[in-house]
Amino acid sequence: RKEVEQDPGPFNVPEGATVAFNCTYSNSASQSFFWYRQDCRKEPKLLMSVYSSGNEDGRFTAQLNRASQYISLLIRDSKLSDSATYLCVVIPAPGGGNKLTFGTGTQLKVEL
Amino acid sequence: DGGITQSPKYLFRKEGQNVTLSCEQNLNHDAMYWYRQDPGQGLRLIYYSQIVNDFQKGDIAEGYSVSREKKESFPLTVTSAQKNPTAFYLCASSIGWFPNTGELFFGEGSRLTVL
């Protein structure tokens, strides 16, 4: 089983829709979680951290479910500019040197 | 503006040739990293450096070499020993080594194609 798994998509949604995607992780002792955004043929950029209590930033909400070992990203009122690939990133359990483990990404396409 | 500059953006090389990818940052970050991204795979860590004159192998270091003679610079050489060098290479930096904030600052990447 991969350390971090994501549905590659693409998720095609109309503008204004609400969309959510998950990311599962295999190591139950993983300590920190993040979402990065990567535009087509560009570099990844940190979108938001994922806290145990959830984290909201405008139209974006990130949540962590430790019992089921997944994190989620919810985007409300989708914009065309939200079209990108969203990378799930996990810092594994202590002892791994805090190395970030990247998922393969979920592609989102927002359409008119 | 502070940032990370990678060059060249696109590079074509014949099989068997070594190539060096440049990475320069003016963010005053101590830590720098090289990742490789292939279709259908997550970013994979090649090498990383915590401070000047020090670097460690990442998960897929075979066929690659680096140097860190200056804080600002972390060039990556893709040698002829690398079996599948065609990929998108990303350089990154951070304030501390693999910070708990999870925030790495990436350059725009170098796309290497070996013919």
Set down the secondary structure blueprint:
The complex is a heterodimer of chains A (112) and B (115).
Chain A: E1 4-6, E2 11-14, E3 19-25, E4 32-38, E5 44-50, E6 55-57, E7 60-65, E8 70-75, E9 84-91, E10 101-102, E11 106-111
Parallel strand pairs in A: 2-11
Antiparallel strand pairs in A: 1-3, 3-8, 4-5, 4-9, 6-7, 7-8, 9-10, 9-11
Chain B: E1 4-7, E2 10-13, E3 19-25, E4 31-37, E5 44-49, E6 56-57, E7 64-66, E8 76-78, E9 87-94, E10 105-106, E11 110-114
Parallel strand pairs in B: 2-11
Antiparallel strand pairs in B: 1-3, 3-8, 4-5, 4-9, 5-6, 7-8, 9-10, 9-11
In brief:
The complex is a heterodimer of chains A (112) and B (115). Chain A is mainly β.
Helicity range of chain B = under 10%
For the termini of chain B, the CA-CA separation is 36 Å
Helix and strand pattern of chain A: EEEEEEEEEEE
Percent of residues in helices of chain A: under 10%
Number of helices of chain B: 0
**Stretches with pLDDT under 50, minimum 5 residues of chain B:** none
Task: Give the integer mean of the pLDDT values of chain A.
Answer: 92
Number of beta strands of chain B: 11
Oligomer: heterodimer
Largest sheet of chain A: 6 strands, mixed
Shape designation of chain A: globular
* Structural class by SSE content of chain B: mainly beta
N-end to C-end Cα span of chain A:
37 Å
Determine the mean pLDDT of chain B: 93
